[in-house]
Each structure stands twice: as structure tokens, then as C-alpha cells.
Design brief:
alpha+beta, single chain, 758 residues, 18% strand
């Protein structure tokens, strides 16, 4: 499981994913036997000259980028990587280190759960879907509020900016952080009052910032974490890695650096002559062929290197930007690219709709509002969710307060999402798994009623909500935009939609694209709408008609509201108290119907201490004289070290930083502590619970032996509220599931594999 999770990372390329190889097109040249010598040295420029003063830097940051608020500066255009026929993201403005790339968080993140659950109906088709989509969603870098939502086999489909950047280890410039305000917006819909609750994702998209200064015209890259050969998918063996850049830099520096002890040699034509022994043979970490491609090939290139104001530390990035990348200008990008920041995400003007897409700039009638590359799914049935545990476990916290489903126990809703139910909580029949829902992803995909195929956009196009001239939900003029196939900017899409369904099924990468275009002039700040079709409209109206309000449980509070009170004591119904700990309970989170607590935690030597190796759960649970004081003396240590890195809070956390935890009680300044320090206030005693996403968690002694992992002096600021597994609105019975309808005149006739019903 963990091996698969670690291999999953977005390969966010609009072209063929295997073409992410950034291999230089310049190969080795032949040379004559006549050899001359050339020696020189790189100029070493003082750092005071190489970097602007802070004041000058800030002045340029504020006023000389040349970009206006009403001007697009982030584009999608053909990638600058040599050998890559796909697309990449570019900036036409200077972007400074730490600066936000977009005006706010990117689009929306859609959780996909149960991807490892393949022993289900149509499991072969589901495996095909997983293999196709695996390079495009985030399997690591999954925020903890997503990881806790539905068990360890959950991934994050981050559309828009999170899907598009190409990979590069040396030129990486993007930091995919989380929104500072709230990454999980479960107040977008009230589950007790809104029929739209659970029909859209509450996970706000990432907030990308720059990790270095980027010049106008550069492509924006992101490292996927694969910076060693063989560390990921097969393509990692064929791309430049830091090891090649470093070996090539050493060879160059030793020949034309300030303390050069060797020289480059040239033949009579001015080509570099380099013995194979200089580069050496392939090793597990270095590919000789790739090193050679990075070295200068001509006398002119050597002279250019010698004249460049570089240090040894600068050389790897210099080689990456000069040898493997085609230079672009802002003018070229504007002419050949499409704006990626036309739409921004805000709360929709429609009720029950969640976020909507709003125009950032003026959009003329007939022009493209946004591009929409789409990933295909051959059979929509693979989005069915089946029981992975007993019904009582899966629906814990969901139906005690529910006052009526929008379907009966054997009924269907939307596009056939079944919610049949086991009434006695018996274990799952693995041979005949019971469907308990449908992936939320279905609501973001296009479908035609005559086909099993789904087409799922991967940009902010998914934020565009429904409005029709029939019902005029957005006003008497109806929708202000429409969708169509890409208008020539994606040649692969033109070719693919002429192919048969059988040919489409053989594709292992993305190759189709839509575009949203304006039906009339759209003003800045105006919400964009398209018509989802009459079938979708009827399904929504039927859902609203059957939906019934739910009663509000005692002490109900959303995760967003709870986390906004991070300076206040932990909620009383999430304090487990000492009795349960003394009795040996190891997995309790208090009495809240919706929330649980997670604590910042990482393993230390204490987790493997002999006190946990030698004790047993039987000894612990059978000790009738257990009391919290004795247990703290035996099993606890100081938890004050567990703080967010750099004190930046949740927005900067790495996946897996939070472990489920039980908050036992709040310490006070008068408490007698076990290290005779009574100065702690606003701290807690907590019991850490096993984290199912942590590799090898079952081998940790206190987990293996069923013993309590207690921490004293744990900071309140390091405790966060999360939604309990399977308790989110998206897991409520009767939630709306229905794909966007795609018109017959646009859907390829040869893909229609469902006959008309008689």
C-alpha cells in the first residue's frame, strides 16, 4: 500500500505523460583527430554584485514587473522542455521568491477514495481507470484533512494549477501550500438545511507560491519528488537528475573555473573533444549519456560559459536552463498560449452550489473563457463505492441525526447511485460487495446518456455552475457561456475524438480537451454559467423534492468553525478524561458526533523504548490499580517539542504530520508535574493513536503491544480538529450524484455504446 502511495504523484502534463523527458535534442558530435587546447576561467562575481539590495528588490517587486491587475500573466503554452511536445505553465511577469502565483487558492481539490479496492464488480475496468489517472492525481502530498476523510487509500485530484506544471528538479519554482484561511470549507453548505450538502468538494485548492525568483518568460516547474534515477515511474531513468547536473558542473569547473587544473580540447572544427573516461560509465545514480548532453560541445559554448558571471553553485541551474530548455519570451507566450487565470473561485451566487467560477478580466463574446483538458473514464460504473467494512463502521456518525433519505433502502438517485443498507451491521460479503455510494468525482464529469464514457475536466472549468434558459436560475438571459471541443489548440484531441471506443480504451494518458467559450460579453466579477442539460436539471429537482431537513445534534459545530477557535480550549465533548485511559481504551475520540482531534506528531526514540517493548497490553489492561498518575510516569514523556515547523501552522504541514489523538485533559499552572515543572499552561495531556498512513505503523512497539502513547505539556496550538472518517457530508446517505450532461451533437457517435431503452 505505502509503496503505491509513494509512487503516486502528479505528472501534470497536457501532452503525453511519458514525454515529460526533458532530454536535450543536441547529441554528441563527431570530431577530427587534430586537437587544440583551450583554457580559461569563469569569472567569480561577488555576491554583493550578483544580488540586488533588499530595498531595490522590494521596489522592483512592487512596481516594475510590467503587469497590470487587469492583465493576464499566467499562461498555458507549449512546454519549453526540449523533447516534450506537451504543454507547460509560464509567467509573463517577474515572480519573486515567496510571491503567490495566482490571486488566491487554486480551484478545488476532489478526493478520490477506495482506489485500491479492486475486488469489486468491473474491477478490471476500475484498474484501467486507476492506471490512466495515476500520473495525474496526488497520492503523496495529500493534506491530512483529506487523508483522514476515508481511510488510507485516498488520493487528491487537484485540478487546475495542481494538475498542469511539468516536473524539474533543478528548475523547480513552485511550492504547493495550503490556503492560510481554511483549506477545508465545510460551511459552504449546511447539511441540516441544504440539499446541496455533500454534492461538491469542500477541499479548497492549493495556494502556489514561488520558491525562487522567476523571470518573465520562464516556465514554472514543480518537483514531483523524483530526483534520483529509479525513484519513481520508468521515465525517471531517462531524464536529467541533480546527479548529472553536478557531475557535468564538476567537469566544467575543473576546466574553466578560477582554479582549473585541466582544459577543454577541440578538434579542427572547434568541436569539444572529450575522452569517455572523463564522464565515466553509467552508475545507479548517474547516466553517462545525460552528462555528455549537458557539457559544452563547441569552442563558442565554452567561451560563453567562461564569460558568464557564475559560481560553482550556480552551474547546475545554469546548465538546466541553457541546455535542456528552449527560451521563451513574454510576447511569444501571449501569442502561443492561453490565459490560465481568467477564472477565480468564489462562493457561487446560486444557493446550494458551493463555489463558482467568476471572471477576473473582461471576456469578449465568442472568446475562450478557459481551456479544459479532460481525462476519460471508459465506464462510469467504476466510480461506485462499495463496503470496505461493516455498515455500522462506515456510517458511524451519519444517520443518527438523519430524518429521512432522498431514496428508500433499495432505491436509486441521480445517475444510479445506490444506497442500499445492511440493517444489522453484519460483515461485508466479499464475493458480493454492496454499493454504498458513488465517488464525488462523478459530479464534475461530462457524460452522455447513450454511453458509459465519462469525460472529466482538469482545470477551473469544473467550477462553472449550471444555469439554463428553461429555468433561468441565473437570470432571464440564461447562461453566459457554453462548452465545445477544443478549437485547434490541442491537435491530439482532434485526432482522438475520431477514433473508436476500442481505440480510446487503449490510451494510457490524457489526450482530449474541451473549452468554455463566452456566449456574450462577460464583465469582470461576473459568475460564469453553462447549461448542464435537461436531464441533469430534472435529476436535481427530483433530489430537492425528496430531500428532507435533518435535525441538528447537540453541540454541533463545523470543522472550519472549530479550527477558527484555535486560541480557545479544546471542545468539552472531545475531552476523553482519565477514566477511559485508565481502563485501557486506545481508540476513543470523545463524544462529538462529527469531529475528532489530530495532533502534530512524529516518531522518536521514545516510541521504541524498552518500556513499550517489554510491556504487554494484557498486563496493562489487567492491572486494576491503573491510575493516570502511574500511567503518566510509566508511559509518557514531554510533548512540548511537537510544534508546526517554523511556526507556520497547518497551511505549511506535510502529509502525515498529524496523528489521530485523544485529548485526555487540560493541564493548569497548578498541576504537579512529573519533572517538577509547574509552569505549563494552555497545554494538554494527549494520547497518540496509530496513524494508518504511516509506513510500518504496526511495527511500532506501543502499537504492536496495544499500549498507551501519552504526552504531557502538549501545546494547544498543535491540536487540530478533523472530520471523523466517513462522517463528512460527502458520505451522507442520499447525497446528490449526477454527471454533467453532454449534448448528442457534440458526443462522438461511435462512442455511444448504450442502446436506447424501449
Amino acid at each position: 500500500m505505502e509503496h503505491r502511495r509513494n509512487l503516486r504523484m502528479i505528472l501534470a502534463i497536457l501532452g503525453i505523460s511519458f514525454y515529460c523527458y526533458y532530454i536535450s535534442l543536441i547529441g554528441n558530435r563527431g570530431f577530427r583527430k587534430t586537437v587544440t587546447k583551450y583554457g580559461s576561467s569563469l569569472r567569480v562575481t561577488p555576491s554583493s554584485q550578483r544580488h540586488q539590495s533588499y530595498a531595490a528588490h522590494e521596489q522592483e517587486r512592487k512596481g516594475t514587473s510590467g503587469a497590470k491587475e487587469t492583465e493576464c500573466t499566467i499562461y498555458v503554452a507549449p512546454s519549453s522542455l526540449k523533447g516534450n511536445p506537451g504543454y507547460g505553465i509560464f509567467t509573463t511577469r517577474n515572480v519573486w521568491k515567496g510571491e503567490k502565483i495566482l490571486g488566491g487558492p487554486d480551484g478545488v481539490a476532489i478526493p478520490v477514495e477506495g482506489y485500491d479496492q479492486l475486488d469489486v464488480p468491473k474491477g478490471d475496468l476500475k484498474k484501467q481507470w486507476i492506471q490512466l489517472w495515476d500520473p495525474y492525481w496526488w497520492g503523496r502530498g495529500v493534506p491530512d484533512h483529506v487523508a483522514f476523510e476515508a481511510g488510507p487509500d485516498i488520493v487528491d485530484f487537484q485540478i487546475g494549477f495542481g494538475y498542469l506544471p511539468n516536473h524539474h528538479c533543478e528548475l523547480s519554482s513552485l511550492n504547493p501550500g495550503y490556503p492560510q484561511d481554511t483549506p477545508y470549507e465545510d460551511s459552504l453548505a449546511n447539511r441540516f438545511e441544504s440539499p446541496g450538502a455533500g454534492a461538491f468538494s469542500y477541499n479548497i485548492g492549493r495556494e502556489f507560491s514561488s520558491t525562487r525568483d522567476v523571470k518573465a518568460g520562464e516556465e514554472l516547474f514543480m518537483s514531483y519528488g523524483y530526483c534520483k534515477h529509479g525513484s519513481g515511474p520508468g521515465w525517471t531513468n531517462d531524464v536529467y537528475m541533480p546527479a548529472e547536473f553536478n557531475v557535468a558542473s564538476d567537469i566544467i569547473w575543473n576546466r574553466i573555473g578560477p582554479h582549473a587544473n585541466e582544459s577543454f580540447h577541440f578538434d579542427g572544427s572547434g568541436n569539444v573533444v572529450l575522452e569517455d573516461s572523463v564522464v565515466g560509465n553509467d552508475t545507479a545514480t548517474v547516466k553517462a549519456k545525460l552528462v555528455k548532453e549537458l557539457l559544452p560541445e563547441t569552442k563558442e559554448q565554452v567561451q560563453r560559459l567562461a564569460a558568464a558571471p557564475l559560481t560553482r553553485e550556480d552551474l547546475p541551474k545554469y546548465l538546466a536552463s541553457k541546455r535542456g530548455v528552449n527560451p521563451r519570451t513574454p510576447e511569444w507566450i501571449r501569442e502561443n498560449g492561453m490565459c490560465l487565470e481568467t477564472l477565480v473561485a468564489r462562493k457561487s451566487t446560486l444557493p446550494h452550489a458551493g463555489q463558482g467560477a467568476f471572471a477576473r478580466f473582461s471576456i469578449k463574446k465568442g472568446s475562450i473563457v478557459t481551456m479544459a483538458p479532460v481525462l476519460h473514464i471508459m465506464d462510469k460504473d467504476v466510480l461506485a463505492l462499495y463496503e470496505g467494512q461493516t455498515e455500522s463502521e462506515a456510517e458511524e456518525g451519519n444517520d443518527d441525526d438523519y430524518e429521512g433519505d432522498s431514496v428508500d433502502k433499495e432505491g436509486t438517485k441521480g445517475d444510479g447511485d445506490k444506497n442500499s443498507g445492511s440493517e444489522d451491521g453484519e460483515s461485508v460479503d466479499r464475493n458480493h460487495p454492496r454499493q454504498v455510494g458513488t465517488q464525488l468525482l462523478l459530479n464534475y464529469c461530462f457524460s452522455n446518456p447513450h454511453s458509459t464514457v465519462l469525460l472529466c475536466p482538469a482545470t477551473n472549468a469544473v467550477l462553472v455552475n449550471h444555469c439554463s434558459k428553461r429555468k433561468q436560475q441565473c437570470g432571464p438571459n440564461g447562461p453566459n457561456a457554453d462548452y465545445r471541443w477544443s478549437s485547434g489548440w490541442d491537435p491530439t484531441s482532434d485526432e482522438w475524438r475520431r477514433q473508436s471506443l476500442e481505440e480510446l480504451a487503449t490510451k494510457s494518458f490524457r489526450g482530449l480537451s474541451f473549452e468554455i467559450y463566452a456566449l456574450r460579453d462577460i464583465a469582470p466579477g461576473e459568475e460564469v454559467f453553462i447549461d448542464y442539460g435537461e436531464a441533469w436539471e430534472q435529476a436535481w429537482e427530483e433530489h430537492v423534492r425528496q430531500w428532507k431537513p435533518r435535525s441538528v445534534p447537540k453541540n454541533w459545530i463545523s470543522a472550519k468553525e472549530a479550527n477558527e477557535m484555535n486560541d480557545e480550549p479544546i471542545l468539552e465533548d472531545l475531552l476523553v478524561g482519565t477514566k477511559l485511559v485508565e481502563e485501557g481504551a486506545t481508540t476513543t475520540f470523545g463524544d462529538h458526533p462529527y469531529l475528532m482531534t489530530g495532533c502534530v506528531y512524529w516518531t522518536t526514540d521514545m516510541d521504541y523504548d524498552e518500556v513499550f517493548e517489554n510491556a504487554t497490553a494484557t498486563l496493562y489492561s489487567n492491572n486494576k490499580k491503573n491510575n493516570i498518575d502511574d500511567m503518566l510516569k510509566t508511559f509518557s514523556d514531554d510533548g512540548s517539542r511537537y510544534e508546526y515547523p517554523n511556526n507556520k501552522g497547518y497551511a505549511s504541514h506535510e502529509d502525515g504530520l498529524h496523528w489521530p489523538c485523544s485529548v485526555v485533559y487540560q493541564e493548569t499552572g497548578n498541576d504537579k508535574d512529573y519533572d517538577d515543572d509547574d509552569s505549563y499552561q494552555d497545554t494538554y495531556v494527549v494520547q497518540i493513536q496509530p496513524n494508518p498512513t504511516y509506513p510500518g505503523v504496526d511495527d511500532i512497539p506501543w502499537v504492536r503491544n496495544g499500549l498507551p502513547r501519552l504526552l504531557r505539556h502538549f501545546p494547544r496550538s498543535s491540536i487540530r480538529y478533523f472530520v471523523k472518517p466517513y462522517a463528512s457530508d460527502q458520505h451522507l446517505p442520499g447525497v446528490f450524484r449526477q454527471p454533467i450532461g453532454m449534448r448528442d451533437d457534440l458526443f462522438p457517435e461511435q462512442w455511444k455504446n448504450i442502446p436506447d431503452s424501449k
